[in-house]
Write a structure and sequence with these properties.
With 209 residues, the protein is an alpha/beta fold. It folds into two domains: 86 residues, Rossmann fold, CATH 3.40.50.10090; 114 residues, 3-Layer(aba) Sandwich (Rossmann fold). The protein is 30% helix and 25% strand. It is built from nine helices and eleven strands. The strands form two sheets. A six-stranded mixed sheet has the order 3-8-7-4-5-6. Strands 2-1-9-10-11 form a five-stranded parallel sheet, with helices on both faces. Helix 7 links the parallel strand 9 and strand 10. The model has no long low-confidence stretch (mean pLDDT 95). Pfam families: HEM4 (PF02602).
């Protein structure tokens, strides 16, 4: 039986459940005053499409993961560097650049990592612009989950929305895309954490169960 994938992305080998409704915002941004962009999700890349491409086409982006980098590249964006899938790791990359480098972090209303504030506290120049917000979708509310199901969670938000309407039964197998998502689970739940922050890595785990 196929596993349930709680993600804004889909996969042919899973039962796809989009846990979030995304609303894009369009705050005023002066791209010219920044050296680089910071992108931590595909939704941030989509939010950029609301702006004049000519205003940011020369701006390279520090992307949190390979998936986000691919999404930005497909949107004709230029990649600066690619992180390892965790917001907390971006601080190390940013700190390798001069402190007067000006960064623009395009983010959601709620974020899982406070790397931007931590890095600012060390003297680096990072502005933040909220370009989208998310809420739990009705898809997850009406979902009927079979017994002994395998559940794959790809973000803290996917866990939060699942728990808003459902419980994690003892007979479920839980797989999470990374440590940040693991922290969103209730105490006592022991998931399997993917070796890489990708859906493909989560699916590889199933073959060994």
């Amino acid at each position: 039986m196929k596993p349930y994938l709680f993600s804004t992305s889909s996969h042919p080998d899973t039962i796809d459940v989009n846990p979030l409704e995304i609303s894009f915002l369009k705050p005023s941004i002066e791209f010219a005053q920044y050296d680089y962009l910071i992108l931590t999700s595909k939704q941030a890349v989509k939010a950029l499409s609301q702006y004049n491409y000519a205003d940011y086409k020369e701006k390279q982006a520090l992307c949190i993961s390979k998936a986000t980098a691919l999404s930005f590249k497909e949107a004709n964006g230029k990649i600066l560097e690619v992180g390892h899938g965790y917001g907390d790791n971006l601080s190390g990359i940013i700190s390798s650049y001069p402190k007067d480098t000006k960064w623009l972090y395009l983010r959601a209303t709620e974020v899982a990592s406070n790397f931007a504030q931590v890095t600012r506290d060390c003297g680096y120049c990072i502005d933040e612009s909220v370009v989208y917000e998310s809420s739990c979708s009705l898809n997850i509310k009406t979902l009927k989950i079979r017994p002994k199901a395998i559940l794959i969670f790809t973000s803290p938000s996917s866990v939060k929305c699942f728990l808003k309407y459902h419980k994690l039964n003892e007979d479920y197998k839980v797989i999470v895309i990374g440590k940040t998502t693991e922290k969103a689970l209730p105490t006592g739940i022991k998931p399997i954490v993917a070796t890489e922050p990708s859906i493909a890595s989560c699916l590889k785990i199933i073959n060994s169960l």
